[in-house]
């Protein structure tokens, strides 16, 4: 079927709406008609760089170097950060002498727009940077954005971490540390001391632990952390009844002994994490409010990082449920360091907001790192997933160094998390480029349909942003 002006314009105007629509469309000018006429001849006479640049110059646009023309329109570079052949449903034939089909033309245009959004933040800046480079310079530039997958596969495992049973992971939380730490001027834990006081206040008779916890909370109204810690640390035996102080102490001391073992293991693990911070691949952020959350977290990490797709990569990941510090301020510093050093972040979002972990997501996005948000496969989790993905404007932030808009990839399936991590570190990410026909572009990660980059069509916002973003201190 012969290529028509209407079909050609139908493709072109999606990428260049300001030039090809409006009061005086570009294609109705002398240079515009020359461009369209020459493009219609592509099947019989492939479009050369000379012809393309002549038309660009006549249209008051700068031309392309031979390297840029060849990189985007004539070749399929094997070392690009993502597989080029997956940008379109069918990979067109690439003629080495010039652009010989509309499919070849628009693959090149699409590739350029995807690269512009991914690595520059706007199309104009990408064109200014790339148009004068040689083929090898462009290949080297994008090669820096690739992960060395072979290096991952051959580097081997890390020194083993101390094992903490899934049922004991919650005992390394700050609230457990508060409860099972020593009471003031006493040689027993705070939890044992306060529950014993509550038992005496209750008349030293058979009582449900739950009621004693409530009394202990009421007696510590001025210490919010202590209040929160009692129910958290006593969750295992909350539904039990005790008939004596000795029975109560036995309940508490049994868990306290496990706390000491778990905390010692977690502190040793922190030292291991700090020893490999230079090789850290993934920071795992999570929001946990009870023992079940910690168990789920342990299972999710085992299922995801132990998956057959990821095992060959020997990924190093920081799991905060496997780490403890001497004080909560140090733990905050450690976790900020891990976010900064990690190459990507995976956030296991709970069914409620968490200031700390949401802050870690914001930090990773602001550093320009890939972020995956996993929401639980529940009704409330589904609602949060849609809220993050489709509604909340701050699930897309700014790479503070480069000014590039960056968005998180959001899912409620663990198999998606596995696939995304594999694609990230194997340089196999897949994208779809959405446009509204008016110059607003959204780059979506294909598996989750999440917006990971965008390009606004607001000229005022665009010019204000890029004229001043890098000039403001």
CA(first)-CA(last) distance: 56 Å
Radius of gyration: 29 Å
Note the beta-strand portion: 5-15%
Largest sheet, spatial ordering of strands: 4-3-5-6-9
Summing up helix and strand content along with how strands pair, one would put the structural category as alpha/beta
Number of strands: 12
Q: What level of helicity do the residues show?
A: 40-55%
Give the helix tally. Answer: 20
State the shape: elongated
- Residue stretches low in confidence (pLDDT < 50, at least 5 long) are none
Described by strand count, sense and barrel closure, the largest sheet is: 5 strands, parallel
Q: Residue-averaged pLDDT, rounded?
A: 91
What does this structure look like?
Helices cover 49% and strands 10% of the residues. It has helices at 5-15, 17-20, 30-40, 49-58, 66-74, 102-119, 123-130, 135-143, 149-154, 174-180, 190-201, 209-219, 224-233, 245-275, 291-305, 328-341, 355-366, 379-391, 414-425, 459-468, and strands at 207-208, 241-242, 282-286, 317-318, 344-348, 371-374, 396-398, 405-407, 409-411, 431-435, 441-445, 450-455. It is elongated and about 100 Å long. Among the domains are: 5-146, no CATH class; 168-262, no CATH class. The longest helix has 31 residues, at 245-275. The model has no long low-confidence stretch (mean pLDDT 91). The chain has 20 helices and twelve strands. It is an alpha/beta fold. Strand 11 (441-445) and strand 12 (450-455) form a beta hairpin. A five-stranded parallel sheet has the order 4-3-5-6-9, with helices on both faces. A three-stranded antiparallel sheet has the order 10-11-12, covered by helices on one side. Helix 3 runs antiparallel to helix 4 (49-58), helix 11 packs antiparallel against helix 14 and helix 15 (291-305) crosses helix 19 (414-425).
């Amino acid at each position: 079927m012969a290529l028509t002006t209407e079909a050609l314009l139908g493709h072109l105007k999606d990428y260049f709406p300001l030039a090809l629509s409006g009061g005086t469309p570009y294609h109705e000018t002398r240079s515009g008609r020359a461009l369209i006429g020459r493009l219609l001849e592509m099947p019989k006479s492939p479009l050369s760089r000379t012809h393309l640049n002549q038309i660009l110059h006549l249209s008051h646009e700068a031309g392309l170097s031979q390297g840029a023309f060849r990189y985007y329109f004539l070749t399929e570079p094997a070392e690009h950060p993502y597989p080029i052949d997956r940008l379109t449903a069918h990979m067109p034939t690439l003629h080495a002498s010039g652009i010989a089909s509309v499919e070849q033309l628009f693959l090149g245009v699409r590739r350029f727009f995807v690269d512009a959004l991914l690595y520059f933040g706007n199309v104009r800046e990408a064109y200014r940077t790339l148009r004068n480079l040689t083929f090898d310079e462009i290949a080297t530039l994008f090669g820096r954005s690739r992960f060395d997958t072979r290096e991952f596969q051959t580097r081997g495992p890390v020194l083993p971490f101390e094992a903490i049973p899934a049922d004991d992971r919650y005992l390394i939380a700050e609230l457990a540390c508060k409860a099972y730490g020593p009471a003031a001027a006493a040689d027993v834990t705070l939890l044992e001391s306060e529950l014993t006081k509550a038992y005496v206040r209750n008349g030293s008779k058979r009582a449900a632990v739950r009621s004693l916890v409530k009394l202990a909370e009421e007696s510590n109204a001025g210490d919010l952390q202590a209040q929160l810690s009692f129910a958290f640390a006593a969750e295992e035996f909350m539904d039990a009844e005790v008939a004596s102080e000795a029975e109560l102490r036995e309940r508490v001391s049994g868990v306290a002994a496990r706390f000491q073992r778990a905390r010692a293991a977690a502190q040793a693990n922190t030292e291991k994490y700090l020893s490999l911070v230079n090789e850290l691949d993934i920071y795992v952020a999570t929001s946990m409010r009870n023992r079940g959350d910690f168990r789920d977290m342990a299972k999710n990490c085992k299922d995801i990082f132990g998956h057959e797709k990821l095992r060959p990569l020997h990924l190093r990941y920081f799991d905060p449920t496997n780490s403890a510090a001497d004080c909560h301020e140090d733990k905050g510093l450690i976790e900020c360091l891990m976010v900064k050093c990690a190459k990507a972040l995976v956030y296991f979002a709970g069914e409620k907001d968490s200031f700390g972990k949401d802050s870690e997501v914001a930090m990773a996005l602001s550093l320009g790192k890939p972020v995956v948000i996993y929401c639980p496969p529940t009704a409330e989790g589904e609602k949060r997933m849609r809220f993050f993905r489709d509604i909340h404007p701050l699930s897309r932030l700014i790479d503070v160094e480069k000014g590039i808009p960056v968005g998180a990839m959001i899912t409620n399936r663990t198999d998606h998390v596995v696939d995304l991590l594999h694609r990230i570190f194997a340089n196999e990410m897949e994208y779809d480029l959405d446009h509204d026909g008016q110059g607003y572009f959204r780059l979506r990660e294909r598996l989750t349909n999440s917006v990971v980059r965008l390009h606004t069509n607001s000229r005022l916002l665009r010019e204000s942003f890029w004229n001043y973003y890098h000039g403001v201190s």
